[in-house]
Amino acid sequence: MEPKKNPQQDLNKKSSMYFVFGLLLVLAMVYVALEWKSFESDRHIDEAMNTNESEIEEDLVEKFKIEEPEVKQVLPQEIKIEENDAEIEETEVISSEADPETEVLEATDLEVIDVPDEVEVNWVTIEEVPVFPGCEDEKDKRACFNDMMQKHIRKNFRYPELAQEMGLQGRVSTQFIINKDGSIGTIQKRGPHELLENEAARILSKLPKMTPGMQRGTAVKVPFSIPITFKLQ
């Protein structure tokens, strides 16, 4: 059976050539459109150039005319001289150097006042340790003191939320002073982060007033050290 179409007259053979030709034509038109330039009329430039120079100068002189400031004459104030008969008291300067008439005090004439030093006795060597409230009747007051301290820490312990979010944990070494009146004095702390240190100091600041420690029958300051551990579950 013979084909109905003539292969020599098939238009699809040259379709790619026609496509390339059309694409080049479109690109040429776009290039001409982008490179097209238009210029404004120079009529206003000519009008400005034809302006009379004398008119411009007159306008500038009127606009920038400088007014001279009025100078006011200022007269000096009248100076009055008044007589003052008041007497002037002279300051007498007394020499601090010793002379033959200077009285010299002997050592026996001086009163010596003894100022007692602040005594601080170590927790281990003190004769009578401070007594935590509730341990007055206990025989071993040291052990009772340690137990009551642990209870106080567990009762007032609050793990800082920000420290939990940051994943902070560790041991905070603390030391505080039990004053001669039984109050809590200076609190020192050292730990892995300031948030944990501040929480440890807050717990110790809530300690109750205690019976002060005694050394040779006298109330003394007693330092006490205890670690507080912060551990995430």
CATH 2nd-level architecture of the domain at 141-230: 2-Layer Sandwich
Number of H- or I-type helical stretches = 6
The oligomeric state of the chains shown is single chain
Spatial strand sequence of the major β-sheet: 2-1-5
The span between the termini is 91 Å
Number of E strands? 5
Structural class: alpha+beta
H/E element sequence: HHHHHEEHEEE
Radius of gyration: 52 Å
Mean residue pLDDT: 76
Segments where pLDDT lies below 50 for 5+ residues?
44-50
Specify the helix fraction band. Answer: 25-40%
Most strands sheet? 3 strands, antiparallel
Supply the CATH class of the domain at 141-230: Alpha Beta
| Strand-residue proportion | 5-15%
Tell the overall outline: flat
Q: Using the coordinates shown, work out and report the CATH topology of the domain at 141-230.
A: TolA/TonB C-terminal domain
Subcellular location: Cell inner membrane
GO molecular function, one term: energy transducer activity
Domain TonB C-terminal: 144-233
Protein name: Protein TonB
Features:
two-stranded antiparallel ribbon, transmembrane helix, 5 strands, TolA/TonB C-terminal domain, alpha+beta, membrane, flat, 233 residues, transmembrane, cell inner membrane, TonB_C, three-stranded antiparallel β-sheet, 13% strand
Give a written overview of the molecule:
The structure is a single chain. This protein has 233 residues and is α+β, with helices and mostly antiparallel strands. It has a domain at 141-230: TolA/TonB C-terminal domain (2-Layer Sandwich), CATH 3.30.2420. The protein has six helices and five strands. A three-stranded antiparallel β-sheet has the order 2-1-5, covered by helices on one side. It has a two-stranded antiparallel ribbon with strand order 3-4. A hairpin with a 2-residue loop joins strand 3 and strand 4 (218-220). It is a single-pass membrane protein. InterPro entries: TonB-dependent_transducer (IPR051045), TonB/TolA_C (IPR006260), TonB_C (IPR037682).
